[in-house]
Amino acid sequence: MAILVKPIQRINPQDKDAEKKWYVTQVTSAQVDETQVAMEIAEETTLNPSEGMMAIRQFRKIVLRHLLAGESVKLGNWGSFSVTISSIGVAKKEEVNANNIKSVNLNFQPDDEFKADLQKARFAWVDKLAEGRTSAESPVEPEEPGGGESPDPIV
After folding, report:
1. pLDDT at position 78, please?
2. Whose CA, among 8, 65, 70, 123, lies 20 to 30 Å from 1?
3. Closest Cα to residue 122, out of 141, 109, 144?
4. Torsion sign (Cα): 13, 15, 18, 24
5. In a 10 Å sphere around its CB, with 0-12 CB exposed, 13-18 middle and 19+ buried, how is residue 52 labelled?
6. Domain boundary assignment for the chain
7. Measuring CA to CA, which residue among 74, 83, 87, 79 is closest to residue 106?
8. Residues of the chain falling short of pLDDT 50
């Protein structure tokens, strides 16, 4: 399995007059819903698909309950979920109230082990997949992987 990527040209938002540069961008290939996840849980455990679905829904309900109580939720070596808010600024402290809140957001902070697992990602160029190439046929190292070598080739 690989994360699909493609080149995209962008302007520098801090210097709109600068020359556009090319960046590698991730392409989402599909969205998996909770029914699919429940089916996969059933395949990996002794639960049946209905029990897997019930477990997912109960998990969501319990995490949401804790988040709405102002608590963060740490899940083993996955990481922690917490709530953040965006608000508008006002001139005086006395003007601060709940109406200043624009949105409530979910933050996920992965643990180090989860982050390390993500770094094992493999990549495949969307345009090369369309041509029918595989990772073994045309490995290409990334030009700017953030200072280190990529453990897996980008196709």
Report:
1. 93
2. 8
3. 141
4. negative
5. buried
6. 1-31+121-155
7. 83
8. 135-153, 155
